Every structure is written in structure tokens, then in C-alpha cells.
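quick one, 298 residues, struct below
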Amino acid sequence: MKKHDTEVVKLEIWDEFVKHFRNERTAAAYLTEIAEFERISKKSFFASGAKEAERYYKWLKNREECGEISGSTLGKKFWELHSFASFAEKWSGMYGVQPGFEDCFFPWLREAGHQEKLVHIIPVEDMDALYRAAQEDKMAYTIITIIHRVGLSSREISELRPGDFASYDNGVFAHIRSREELCFIPADVVQILNQFLEEREDFEFLFYNRKGDPLNKMFISRMLKKYTGLAGIPSYSAEKIRTTCGVTMSAYGATARQVARQMGITGTQIRKYQNRQYKDNLRVRANELVKIRIEPPV
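---
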């Protein structure tokens, strides 16, 4: 039996749920959680109910207590199941979903003790929709990617210059003026950043307005409002998208210290330093834990 084998993938509701995803990896991540739930509960997703959700929660809780998974991972798994179940509940009686189907996973988010934290997570499907809406605007797409995957604030982004990035043997890092240490840039972000560097105009700051002046917080806020509107999703702020970066890292096992250091809490080419490694691999390894990858705009 394959890792993602589940009858859910054959249903119309699944096609509706994933049609706005930009890549197959997102759908595969959801299918992994659904298949695991079905295997542990011994019932198909749409034949399950409160008892099966409770059984799955207890199984995960036991794994957490044994140190096999973190509490954040437990919460993440229930969040993804809840996300699909709540979508299906909204369309019960249609797309192959039986009338009266209910999302039985949401109550266990609170039971897991992570609801306060998880309310800051922007659903993966919303981020996919946001990227799709902004893909023709290279600057906006790059800014959104840096907020979402790197965890920079609006102010930190507005202060970036093209020469602030350096490539070492163990990855690309950025010099952030408000931080004492360099900030790791994941490989998928580097690819998107390089595309933007090749096309941008020659101004002092990395991101700029029509006059060539650096952006400010209000500009970024209005940009996000524009593209969340086009995407048909809630008007998420830069800070909420940024928080998602830290919570996602935690959900995949990064420690509080790793997250804090990555987030900074407590001329057209990236410079290359041959035969050197930035002294701290900690955040490189932490970011490798995050099993998401943002693709360049089409």
C-alpha cells in the first residue's frame, strides 16, 4: 500500500479542495495525514466521526508523550485534517460528500493545547491562492515569499539592499541591519530572489516604488490587501504571514531557539564566498525541517 493511498483522492470534493493548489506537493502533504488517520482509525475519512477523531488524537498523544513527535506536530496534523474536513462540511450533500457530514477534528485542536498558536497559521490553501494571485508581479511575489519562508518583518524587507546577500558553502544568508547575526535564506527563496535580481531596475534598495525610493510598511500592507483580495482570501497582514513561518518551523520540529534566531526575535548577483561556510549551521538544519517549497512564478 502506497503512502498516499486513500479513497479520498477519487472523490469530487478532493478535486474541488486541491484545484487552487499551485503544486502537487501541497496535496500530497494533506493526503499523507488523511491516509495516516484512516490507517489508525480503521475507517475511511468520510465514514469516520467523533470516536475515530478521539482514537487518532490519543494515538498521537501517546507518541508525543514517548517523545516520537512534538506537541506542535500533533497540532499541525489535526489542523490539516480539520482544514479538509471543514471544507467538506461546507459542501456536505455535494461533490460526493454525504449530507450531514461534520468536522470532528476542530475540538481536538483545543484539547491539544495549541489552538491559541494555531489561529495564527494561515491555511496552506490560502497561501497557495495568494502566490497564484501575485505571480505576475515579481516584486510582490518575492516579498511575499521572503515574509512567508524567511520570516522577515515589513521594516526589515524595506531596508534590504541587493548587496545584503552572501552565498557560503552551506547556503545563502542575508545581512539584516537590525540583527547581530546573518539570516538564512532557504534554497527555494534564493531561486525566486535570483529571478527578481535579474529583472529589477538598478536602485539602492532591493525593493522600491515607482520613483525608485524604498518601500514602507504602508506600501507592503496595501500590496498584500490587493493580492489577498484578488486571491479571494482574508486580508492577511504581513505579520500574520510572518508568524506562519515560525509556527510552521515549530510544527516540523524546529526548537524554540532555532525559530527565534531565524525570525530575529530576542550588484545584481548574490556574492559568492568560495570554500567558506557561515559559522552557524543551526538555522540551515532548522529550515530543512520545513517540508514546504515555494515555486518561482510562472
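Residues 114-119, 265-280 have pLDDT under 50 and may be disordered.
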